[in-house]
Amino acid sequence: HVQLSGRNGYRFYDEKLSNKTARDFLMETKLREALLSDELQVYYQPRVDSSSGSIVGLEALVRWFDCDGKSIRPDEFIPIAEDSGLITGVGEVVLHKACAHAKQLCDAGYPLPVSVNLSPKQFEDSGLLNILDDALFNSGLDHSLLELEITENAVLGNLAESIKTLELIRSRGIKLLLDDFGTGYSSLNYLMSLPLDFLKIDKIFMDKLFQDTKHENIVEFIIVLAKSLGLKIIAEGIEEPEQLDYLKRKCCDEYQGYLFSKPLPFESLLELVGDNFS
Ligand code: C2E
Ligand code: MG
Ligand code: MG
Ligand code: MG
C-alpha cells in the first residue's frame, strides 16, 4: 500500500523499505557515537600528472572503522549522514584532519594540495564559509593547498546562489573541482557559468572506455570541452595501463586510480610521497 512520508511525499511501502529504514536509524545512532569517539579517519588517494607520473595532489576520503574494527563504506553512511544532518559534523572532522595533514606534508617539504569532498547539504549550509576559515586558521595551511570537490547536484538547485558561494570560496584562494562529471545533468549552461578550476571525469566512462568508440569519443570530447573552458581535467578510477595510455594521448592532465595507488592512511601516504619526490 501507499504511505505518506514527510520529506519524500508518497512512496510505496514494503518490507524492504521498512527494513532499510530501521537499518538507517541504527547507522545514524552509530554514526553519532562515532563522531563523539573519534572513529572517523581520513585516507588519501594521490592525484598523478599523466605525462610525468609524479604526484601532484591528494584527495581526502573519509573512512569509518567502527568499534569492532569493521569498516563501513562512505557510499553507505554518507547518504545517511546527509539525511540526518550529521554530515556537517562528518565534514568538519574530515576538513580539519585533511588540513592538518596537508600542513604536516607541506612542513615536511611536500606542498601538495588536498581536495576535500563536499556533499550538497554541506554546500548549502550557511556556516560553510566559517567552517572553512576555521579549518584553515587552525591548521595554518596555505589557502592555495586546500581544494573542494563538489558535484553537479549540489549546485543545480539555485545556480545564481551557488555561483555566489563558489566565488566566496574561491576568493579565499581555495580551488574548486567538479566531481563525477558526466553522471548528472551535465548542462553546458551551468558548466560555463560556474567558477571552477578542475573537472573530474567519472569512473564509469573509464570503465567503458574500450567497449566501443562511442565511449572513447565522449571522453575525448569532455577533455576538449574542459580545456576550452580553461579547466584542468582529471580522470577518476584508472585501473589499467591501457586507460592511462589513452589519456596521455588525449592530453588529459591528471588521473587517479588503483593503477597508481588506492587511498592510503596518512602514514603510508607519507612514505609513498617521499619515494615519489626523491
Ligand atoms: P568520489 O569523491 O568520486 O571518490 C572516488 C571513489 O572512487 C573513492 O571511493 C575511491 O576510493 C574510489 N576509487 C578511486 N580509484 C579507484 C579505482 O581505480 N577503482 C575503483 N574501483 N575505485 C576507485 P570511496 O572512498 O569509497 O568514496 C565514495 C564516495 O563517497 C566518494 O566518491 C564521495 O562522493 C563520497 N565521500 C568520500 N569521502 C567523503 C567525505 O569526506 N565527505 C563527503 N561529503 N563525501 C565523501
Ligand atoms: Mg571526490
Ligand atoms: Mg568522483
Ligand atoms: Mg563518486
UniProtKB/TrEMBL annotation:
Lineage top rank: taxon: Bacteria
Residue stretches making up the EAL domain: 24-277
Name of this chain's protein: Putative signaling protein
Lineage per the UniProt record: Bacteria, Bacillati, Bacillota, Clostridia, Peptostreptococcales
